[in-house]
Specification:
Metallo-beta-lactamase, Chain A; globular; six-stranded mixed beta sheet; single chain; 231 residues; 6 helices; alpha/beta
């Protein structure tokens, strides 16, 4: 399998490009508008055909590249069924399979960070990895105080869906702010300070008292992303 992880320093966003090999069809997850040319260069140099571009949720800290990539490659843009972004080409529901030339992604509805967040399990018959968007981060979790976020739903999504994946499953989040690039379900169960050894009530209390400022691009990014980043 061909796998590339890209990083946008401004928003600390990870983007993932996957294909079964050079010269094959490809899928990209959580692309950032300012990095679109970098993705297109990589796609060209590896002789790939981008056929799917996925956002795990409506991001508030950067503008998506979904629209730009669709315009450049005619790929199908995809989000979960509860998104308000009417511009996307297709939607997934719980347990839908996105199959791109043998790269299989199972959709999991994992609300909490937003009310429309989805995660995607790679090769779900024998899970290799899960792309968690913002609901589960490395030694952290996505905030739950805007865009329909809910700490109870976040807890449920993480403990009753993501944490039921095999412990060796790699966790690929949409963000990291400390330089970590990947984790695993086992690591997050054991070492995530918001979750390990905590009750749901304790987790909810933590999330309700983060007192974080709004993302600096929120007022720009959310409306733009509802238009797939192309206005």
């Amino acid at each position: 399998m061909l796998f590339r992880q890209f990083f946008d320093a401004e928003s600390s966003t990870y983007t993932y490009l996957l294909a079964s090999g050079r010269g094959r069809e490809a899928v990209i997850i959580d692309p950032v508008k300012e990095q679109a040319q970098q993705y297109l260069t990589a796609i060209e140099q590896m002789d790939l055909k981008l056929v799917r571009a996925i956002d795990t949720h409506t991001h508030a800290d950067h503008i998506t590249a979904l629209g730009d990539l669709r315009a450049a490659t005619q790929c199908v843009t995809l989000m979960g069924e509860f998104t308000q972004a009417e511009c996307v080409s297709d939607h997934v529901r719980e347990d839908d399979i996105v199959d791109v030339d043998g790269i299989r992604l199972r959709a999991l509805y994992t609300p909490g960070h937003t009310n429309e967040s989805f995660s995607f399990v790679l090769q779900p018959e024998r899970p290799e990895a899960v792309f968690t968007g913002d609901v589960l981060l490395i030694r952290g979790t996505g905030r739950t105080d805007f865009q329909g976020g809910d700490p109870h739903r976040s807890w449920d999504s993480i403990t009753n869906k993501l944490f039921r994946l095999p412990e060796e499953t790699i966790v690929w989040p949409a963000h990291d702010y400390k330089g970590w690039t990947a984790s695993s379900i086992a690591e997050e169960k054991a070492h995530n300070p918001r979750l390990a050894g905590k009750t749901e009530a304790e987790y909810v209390d933590i999330m309700n008292n983060l007192n974080l400022p709004d993302p600096k691009m929120m007022d720009i990014a959310v409306p733009a992303n509802l238009a797939c980043g192309r206005g």
